[in-house]
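Batch manifest, entry 17 of 40.
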Amino acid sequence: EEYLQVDFDKAAFAVSAVLHPSTYLNKILLGSEQGSLQLWNIRSNKLLYSFPGWNLAVTTLEQAPAVDVVAVGLVSGHIIVHNIKFDETLMRFQQDWGPITSISFRTADGHPVMAAGSPIGHIALWDLEEKKLMCQMQDAHSTAIAGMSFVPGEPLLVTNGADNAIRVWIFDGPGGTGRVLRSRMGHSAPPTKIRYHGQNGEQILSAGQDGTLQSFSTVHEKFNKSLGRGSINKKKSKKKGLKLDTMALPPITVFASEVAHQSDWDNIVACHQGYITCTTWNYQKTSMGAHKLRPEEFSKHKPIDIYATAVDITSCGNFAVIGLSAGQVDVYNMQSGIHRGCYGKERAHEGAVRGVAVDGLNQLIITAGSEGLIKFWKFKTKELVYSTELSSSPSGILLHRDSGILGIAFDDFSISVLDIETRKIVRTFSGHYGRINDMTFSPDGRWLITSSMDCTIKTWDLPSGCLVDCFLVDSAAVSLAMSPTGDFLASTHVDDLGIYLWSNRSLYSLVSLRPLPADYEPSMVTRPSTCPVQDVDVAGDEEKCDKMIEYVSPEQLGEQLVTLSSLPESRWKNLLSLDVIKKKNKPRELPKVPKSAPFFIPTVPGLIPRYVAPEEENTQSKLVNLGVLAQKSDFYIHLEEALSTNEYTAPLNLLKSLGPSNIEIELRGLSPEGGGSVEVMLSFLRMIGMMLDKKYNFELAQAYLALFLKLHLKILSSEPNLVGEVSRLSKQLEETWVHLQTLFNQSLCVLTYMKSALL
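Output type: structure tokens
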């Protein structure tokens, strides 16, 4: 909550620096643009003292290790070490690099040193005992030093600047100068293109408007590395330094990388903005490569209006394919940098090349031109195989090599998906209202994720051809990349230095992939941040998601379809083999109860005492037919009722709930010998007929009927009513089976052809 508010007249005292002096309870020291300083008590809201200053704007205030002593940085480059208790100036230093941006004191390790930062990235180290400059650290940052702080009690200085870098310097060498111990840095200008490098999904290559190519790790920041800035001549650039470098190349617009052979030669090719020469980079050495790739006719002079627009590397890492704005498509060897040919007689396309892609086996190369043509070329012979005209001018293409599908983004904001095997467009999506910036496929090729200048990121499901996810961001996504492992989606945004990682929720929670309605309004999603965000209650959303995805499958999808039951095979497959199973499981001897021994063992009278032999018990049992006495079962009663109601659902459900042995007992009990009747047997046959008519529980009908015929074949042949019902069932079975057999034969024929034709 707000504790106190103090208003100042900006014309008389515009606050430019604030400091709480050490041991000064409830007091703050304010510096102004007019040069004066004021000491305030914030508890009583009173001005305690005004310092006249030095008639120069105060840029920074820093507490010295000594009590009552403060360092004041001025806009002129002066540093005043001032005692605020007695209002006396103790020391005065001057830097020639412009205003003082930050000050820090080295404390508690025996070195009285003061560090001061400048707007051009230099740091000056001043010896406070001898009151002179000790050393300079030039180009500590490429831009102004924003802040610096010595670690208390250690020879470590932490600095950061507007170049989006933070560095830790250690002072352990001779002369008092520091060297970089650790550093973390990102792009100093927004990234323009990101792509995952390798198949483990742990490195993201990023090209920025600052002209650098960097690698960011999704595991830990200590694995980040910078591949440096593109340069026409690396040796001259090193001599001149960053500030005076006139050899720097423009920012990278498009690049391609491949892991194969990355330890042998360069494995990254990059196109630069408005520049015809493409550069190679080496990921292993984290530096720019040795080759500059451009057509031979432009080796002596550089054209103004022709530049590289598209690039791709073969999956083997041996060749780079580069498309130019003049319509040329050239192939270069990655190891030697030698030009290996071009496509077309003079050029591949009439218009500018908007995209190039090579398939996974180096058989085909696909090129897209701004005149609205997609062309397929043989990679080795450079012959044109096929050409198709598109509905609009393409703005970019992306190939998913594993599945052979090509995503095409158009200038009219629509997207098409082309199958490179059949060379036909298989899906068309529309729904973006701005230029499509980038596309990426999921690893399995089922999703196509697109970003547009309308600030939406959309996920299209290719098998169903529907939009399954869409969300809004506050700044349009410039580039997208899906992890090869499918766990993250990386994005970069307009005027934003960071790379954002979005988690794939379908990997760890229930996500509805139903098509979104046509009038779906996407919600604004805040971008991921490093700051802790308040926990949002997502329980309601999860419940809604569960309700959406809850789906009960009907018992039968269609009346014409033969539907099987969902019962396990053990319930019906062995019904005909129950007698064999019982024989196998029957014990060889009945279990005998051990006879208890008498206390006195009886003996046979005679001269030689002998024990009485034990009497053998008669263990034979008689089978009694209790069919007449047996009670009617529930199944039997339901079948009797069905004779009048013609409703067989209840007896069928009851039979489905029983095990194989109980099913056999129930069917045995239907015959007159087992206590049943001919009418109930007729009712059972009608139940089987109903199952065959409706074509559901098809395998159960077959199994139950087979067991019924096995048990009651003699009775069936002697009863004319039952014979008529069985003959009607026989026709039904034959019709259904002939239809099924035809379908099976057709499927087997197609499968056999596919196996033999494609091998």
